């Protein structure tokens, strides 16, 4: 299977390293909106071309993995390329999924291609676990917690505060809330009771630390509804301790069964990830395999993780899967 | 959707109570190998008939849930009924799955029906999580732990010991082993390091307690490879504290990503179940919905959980699922 990546940021490099772990997949091209000469790809033999020339390589690409931002890139790019390629993206702007789905579906059907949107871990694996949980335990509650991990959006927000040179924000689930859900207590949790936020800030020289701390802790939408801790550190400490992009989280389905609803059940799924982009890239690559198989079977249009039978993700045959994993 | 159940033991009653929680499903018939007059079904209006007469009701049944034992019932019953019904079972004799799959597949295809075998939580949900984990993290390790919960096989074994009036065995995962896996340490674990076994025994009057304890702890295949604890209790204590059938367990996929395999990831899925048969029944019922949908789409033959796109399990439409669960 020949894969191409559009874009070459963190997620794209995660996809690239995941492809290297799968013997049946090969990364052939990286397409970029920058000057191709400026992009150095880690994998030997990969051809870097301008995104403007992508159609020239159409016949040579089984799946195009589109690594762009959900705000402006993907709503435009995924429908555009779905006409000529089997495509996959990690679109995560929840409110706009119906519109994005419709646009990508139309384009993919016109071109006879297969597309998968909103893939990764949330949306993605967490969505799947919510679906399985709801189908199995129709009378119950869903809980999703994120972290401990880096929120890019909140880290960006910190870095925009006056006097901040660099910063990183970790979202942390509240342990007592996790325990309550785990014990089947079905708590009603406020935003503040679910997560705390921890910030590591490198201040500019002579900056007013108290003012920075106050600006962060009271920032509407981002921090004001949370218990937030701000730590001031040096650039050296930042580089030593906060270079990674870890993340993770928890999905619970807590429900009851029995004629008198007398029996409780708790389903818990959790991820503990050293590298958010590499794990997300690994999920994208497994689903890239799936949509290519589906396309060769004549299935076209836009799909989500809900529409893909799990066996399609695996390089193994049905017999092998049943023998080793059932 | 009209459902019938073959058998009326613990699992069948779990299926029955799950059907009552799903508005789109109705339990129409229970078929039994016993005298139908002796079977009192909890749900009003359900017709109880002899298994010998089942073919008479063929046109009136969308899915037949076969609740029998894996040792002798299911290998015979599922292929037999797959010819005339969409069927689902919870066959769990791992070594015989290929043979069972082939037999059921042949019969289902001949009759134009859809069958699903080995459904429940292990095999079933745990299998799915192993598949997803392996597909996403191809370089890694699988770990499955069971419990805390009742092992019927081990409880039966205890009750066969001389001097034992009643008994129940709980399989318990070793907490330090769980922690090690959770921390991404990829431990190599012996049988003894993964699980302990705890037995609650009601002795017959005047029985030799030391002899019972020794017979249990040294029993080959069942207990000799485990650290086993034996508690002697009264019949009253047994009835008060050990009437339930709780179970559960953990599936882990622990893997690495990155060009230098430098990043660790741990995926953990766990179940904590007050009632093993009711949860298993709930899984069977969701998959019964799925295979009926597949059959109406013209898909026939034998399937496993690997072959079913998750959306088929849900009573909701694609739009609803994408809006609420993605």
- Strand tally of chain A is 14
Largest interface (C-beta under 8 Å)? A-B, 70 and 70 residues
Biggest β-sheet of chain A: count, sense, barrel? 7 strands, parallel
Instruction: Determine the N-to-C terminus distance of chain A.
Output: 26 Å
Radius of gyration of chain A: 22 Å
Helices and strands, with pairings:
The structure is a homodimer of 326-residue chains.
Chain A: E1 2-6, H1 10-19, E2 26-32, E3 47-50, E4 63-66, H2 73-82, E5 87-88, H3 97-111, E6 114-116, H4 125-136, E7 140-146, E8 149-150, H5 152-159, E9 164-173, H6 175-182, H7 191-194, E10 195-203, H8 209-217, E11 227-232, H9 235-241, E12 247-257, E13 263-273, H10 276-296, E14 301-303, H11 318-324
Parallel strand pairs in A: 1-2, 1-4, 2-3, 4-5, 5-6, 6-14, 10-11
Antiparallel strand pairs in A: 7-12, 8-9, 9-10, 12-13
Summed up:
The structure is a homodimer of 326-residue chains. With 326 residues, the first copy, chain A, is of the alpha/beta class.
Could you explain the architecture of this structure?
The first copy, chain A, has 326 residues and is an alpha/beta fold. Chain A has eleven helices and 14 strands. Chain A has helices at residues 10-19, 73-82, 97-111, 125-136, 152-159, 175-182, 191-194, 209-217, 235-241, 276-296, 318-324; strands spanning 2-6, 26-32, 47-50, 63-66, 87-88, 114-116, 140-146, 149-150, 164-173, 195-203, 227-232, 247-257, 263-273, 301-303. In chain A, strands 3-2-1-4-5-6-14 form a seven-stranded parallel β-sheet, with helices on both faces. In chain A, strands 8-9-10-11 form a four-stranded mixed β-sheet. A three-stranded antiparallel β-sheet of chain A has the order 7-12-13, sandwiched between helices. In chain A, helix 1 packs across helix 10 (276-296). The longest helix of chain A has 21 residues, at 276-296. The two termini of chain A are 26 Å apart. The interface between A and B is large, with 70 and 70 residues. Strand 13 of chain A pairs antiparallel with strand 13 (263-273) of chain B, so a sheet runs across the interface.
